[in-house]
Amino acid sequence: MSKTNIACAQIDCVIGRPEINREKIISQTRAAAERDASLVVFPECAFTGYAFESLAEAAPFAETIAGPSSEALANVCRETGIYAVAGFIESAGGKFYNSVMLAGPDGLVGSYRKVHLPFLGIDRFLSPGDRPFEIFELPFGKVGMNICYDISFPESSRVLKLMGAELIVLPTNWPPGARRSPEFVVNTRALENHLFYAACNRVGSERGWEFIGRSKVVDCNGDTLAEAGVEAQELLVVEMDLPEANNNRIVNVPGAYEIDRLEDRRPEMYELISEPRKSSLKEARVAGHND
After folding, report:
1. With helix as H, strand as E and coil as C, how does 21-85 read?
2. Is 120 buried (19+), middle (13-18) or exposed (0-12) by CB count in 10 A?
3. Catalytic residue among 24, 114, 142, 216
4. Which of 76, 82, 208, 212 has its CA 20 to 30 A from that of 42?
5. Which structural domains are found in the chain, ordered by start?
6. Which of 44, 166, 206, 227 is catalytic?
7. Backbone CA torsion sign across 149, 153, 157, 160
8. What is the arrangement of strands in the sheet containing 37-41, beginning at the earlier edge strand?
9. What pLDDT, on a 0 to 100 scale, did the predictor assign at position 168?
10. What secondary structure does DSSP assign to 232-263, as a single string?
11. Distance CA 134, CA 114 (A)
């Protein structure tokens, strides 16, 4: 089975300057293609910036999924033959979402809306994702998408694994308080689901927030394949054998020590997880901010 190169473009972004961010994303997409990457992942809100102080401030920079940023990304993907994932603030049906777009050589492939929103940055003012998780079957493998805080909820990765994901990409904006995500959580999600994981963070500062870099690529055994630094813009390019994620039965000692984290599940014991929750204090605070 052929292996493929996956890239994480750890960049700095300029809040409220999509034209600058687009040029950087286009440049880094070309650079990833020159290094034979099949897919390049950019940070959360890479086109817009993240630390907006109100919805009114952010709304002028929001776009529909068929907007100028997706057109620019699709054009460079057609030019280079690569696939790319990048974050933006999406406007749709009178609501605003923290979203990522996926484009490829044939144009726009799809998008994902962040399901889990922390009370932080632009997420304080947005609507939570309202669409089911989805797998995108690309020529080199089956890819699922999460965004930043989604990684804190193991169900997000597990659902994608059950749908057949071989790789999860995670555009993110990790500030210092999120340092445990690259330290522990990325590897844990890869290990417990036996899939590859590519988390792409940003660097630089934005309105007092210092972003910690540490973009990370992990294999389906939970081992780190590559990790970026904490300050510099950097392009990680890592070779992966994505079909290996489908070999779910791990044989340590034949007939004596074998595990399969899908086959060994007991979903009948997990019913409490799927019970609908009551509305939260956070939702009330968000509504208050947006009134």
Report:
1. HHHHHHHHHHHHHHCCEEEEECCCCCCCCCCCCCHHHHHHHCECCCCHHHHHHHHHHHHHCCEEE
2. middle
3. 114
4. 208
5. 4-248 (3.60.110.10)
6. 44
7. negative
8. 107-113, 95-104, 83-92, 37-41, 4-10, 234-240
9. 98
10. S-EEEEEEE-GGGGG--EEEEETTTEEEETTT
11. 12
Q: Is 161 an annotated catalytic residue?
A: no
Q: Which two tokens stand for residue 274?
A: 């799927």
pLDDT in tens, 169-195: 999 999 999 999 999 999 999 999 999
Q: Catalytic residue at 239?
A: no
What is the C-alpha to C-alpha distance for residues 25 and 177, in angstroms, rounded to an integer? 26
Which residues of the chain, if any, have pLDDT below 70? 1, 279-291
pTM value surpassing 0.85: yes
What are 76's two structure tokens? Answer: 């460079």
Provide the β-strand partners of residue 144: 135, 168
* 3-class SS string, 118-164: CCCHHHHHCCCCCCCCCEEEECCEEEEECCHHHHHCHHHHHHHHHCC
With a CB cutoff of 8 Å and minimum separation 6, the contacts of 9 are 25, 28, 29, 31, 32, 40, 41, 42, 43, 200, 235
β-bridge pairing 167-171 and 196-200 = parallel
Query: Are 146 and 163 contacting, i.e. CB atoms less than 8 angstroms apart?
Result: no
The letter for the amino acid at 129 is G
> b or e along 128-154 (b: 16 or more beta carbons within 10 Å of the residue's beta carbon)?
ebeeebebbebebbbbbbbbbbbbeee
User: Catalytic residue at 200?
Assistant: no
List the one residue out of 166, 170, 167 whose CA is nearest residue 153: 170
- Residue 274 confidence (pLDDT): 87
Choice among 148, 161, 216, 227 that is catalytic? 148
Q: Are 125 and 61 in contact (CB under 8 A)?
A: no
